[in-house]
Amino acid sequence: MFPELGQWSLILSLLVAVSLAIVPLLGSYLRLEGWMRFADRATRVQFALVLLSFVILTLAFLQKDFSVAYVAQNSNTALPWYYRISAVWGAHEGSLLLWVLILCGWSIAVSLKGHELPLAFRARVLAIMGWVSTGFLAFITFTSNPFLRLFPAPAEGRDLNPLLQDPGLVIHPPMLYMGYVGFSVAFAFAVAGLLDGKLDSRWVRWARPWTNLAWAALTGGIVLGSWWAYYELGWGGWWFWDPVENASFMPWLAGTALLHSLAVTEKRKLFTSWTVLLAIITFSLSLLGTFLVRSGVLTSVHAFTSDPSRGLFILIFLAVMAGGALTLYAWRAPRLVVQQPFGLFSREVLILAGNIFLVLAMVVVLAGTLYPLVIDLLGASKISVGPPYFHTVFPLVLTPLVLLMPMGPFTRWKQDEPRRVVKLIWPGVLLTVVVLAVFALQMHQWSAYGLLAAAAGSWVLGGTLNYFWQRQRKARERVLGVGQMPSGVVGMILAHAGVGVFLLGVAMTESQSIEKDVRMAPGEQVELVGYQFRFLGAQHAEGPNYQAEQGTVEILKNDQVIATLHPQKRMYVAGGKPMTEAAIDAGFSRDLYVAMGEALGTDGAWAIRVYYKPYIRWIWLGGIFMLLGGIVAATDRRFRLAEQAVALREQKLALQEG
Amino acid sequence: MRFAVPLLIFLGLGLLLFFGLDNDPRKLPSPLIDKPAPAFTLPLLEEPDQTLGKDDLLGQVYLLNVWGSWCVACRTEHPYLMEIARRNEVPLYGLNWRDRPEEASRWLKQYGNPYTAVLADQAGRTVIDFGVYGAPETFLIDQKGVIRYKYVGPVTMEIYEQELLPRIRQLQEDQS
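Structure tokens for the assembled complex are given below, as produced in the milestone run.
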């Protein structure tokens, strides 16, 4: 009974979404206030209906209702309850439902917080988000119904993909979707601005915290994904340039450019058309990511069940949304161009340069991801572009970005003197040398690449710390605010420092990691950078829905046991799928990683892989800094004051008219 | 005019994706199916001074799996290949594509070797002859050296049991 209710509420929500996409938009042109106000109501109803569907699907999982095909395919009676909840978004249908739920969440947030926005503008923004939800709800209803029944109902489900039975994966997709979908707000603002033919800087200011939050969520999602791949796939890598990873990285790069461009547009009313374009590109890339993951056009480690008819649907949707927005852009953007004088050396120019390199980096990733498709079309034999391509091209694009990064904050808007900036930057150079020395001394094997990457990280971290220090000093001199910095600046410092930390982590991990594959009989040991790994044998172990061979490995340093690790080789009962569960002794400056290969011979020996990974935690630590930076920046008081100012003006207007 | 440039780029991209969708390699039957497999004679990965050719493999039904240690999807496929090898229902030969021999050997030591023998195609010539789209790809070849089926992408137990095994059984019965 319940699943049918879920389906009904899904269909109803589609109808509401269609009306949300049309009525307020018409209202904004016909100046019908009631029609415009309809946007707020429809947004609320839509959210309630989608939430109901989602809750019903979750209940079906919790109650092990295998008469629902989706539940039967992705869970089973032995699955613990928390994985039964996360199994809701463990496959295609449910993850789309989560996507729409988050979209409806963002819409309702815009509706609730947006009462300061002019009514017509808000109505348009919500209507455009309604177009997006219409597309996705139709997609779910017509091609991917999660409530489809199985008759007769099986007694047992097929189990969730073991790769996804993991705490990291419980929160990874929701975070990622928060980011993807969050960019729909900036997109809706941009398109509404194009419809208006003007983009008021107050609205730009209003859009900034939303974009910051979306960006922070996407950063968090990517970090979690990378962390998950590291410990769950059992290969010790943290990034594979896999199409699905690239699909999330592209909107991140474009979104980073968007963040910066929004700042220029708000402060200087410049680059408006560029900002609008970036907003459209960023969200289109989020849709493209969904397309790539769902259509099976590209094969990937993460390969979900894919289906060309679904791919076609998303492609048409992408064509309507991105194509429509870009057509509108081609027609209306010339009106957005505002002439403002700015000098050749100024903050806006540095940001623009940084943006160009970010977009270039995005194009590099896009080209590498779609390359196999092009080659297919040309009929040539496929050449593998994988890590080698990215490892050669990416640093080239990244270098200018890294060089610019610490300079931007020091440089003034409009016009600045290079000499003045250089004077401010030199303490940063000293810091860079110190940081670099600290890390270079810890390198136990020579690597030019490692040193260059560490220099890049030190330059960004040193330069950012220098900025923080100078800014603090200036604030203290003035006694103003007693060292109080606007949270926008704090957020920027955190995020930039995060990039430095990240680069240092990459430099150390990529150039200094050591990996050994050894055959180990019980009692044997192997040494790695001063650590002794002693294999004590493997025993049989049982989990709730899997059987495992569990190894015991002691790690000794200076003859002291510092950790005992239990890597596993699991066999999931329901799917018969083997899985490698690595065991990691994590640390601030190094990870020790043990994974089991195959059982060898009869003496209890196993093929064992041991890794030493220096500073790998810094890769994710840097990501966490960036995430925090995004959140802190979104709380800047200026944004709230701006809202109040807009509200005040609105009230006055209303009084005058009334 | 310059404001229309993004739209034009997008249209190009859209067309590419559209044809990409149509061109889904999994859907496209290989033109080589039911044709004799291209002739090959390649050195063995583990003993490079020995070679193995198509003619040596005549008279048996076998799977030929194209892989490389650089190929991420091959890693996901690998445990299933181990399982297929364990079940011993069909000989599985590996065609190691554009790989460094030491890395390929290391992979086999590390994860286990499911292959009866591994042919090393460093130049990638044989792989081109087979019309391979990308690794991993798996060919089913019969007693007369004719390609009977090909699967693009990682083989799983499901695919093995539903797509490959029935055909293998059929071919093996035809022989006896």
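Chain A touches chain B through 51 residues (CB under 8 Å). The beta strands of chain A are 514-520, 525-528, 531-542, 546-557, 560-565, 568-572, 578-581, 583-585, 590-600, 605-614. Further analysis is deferred to the final report.
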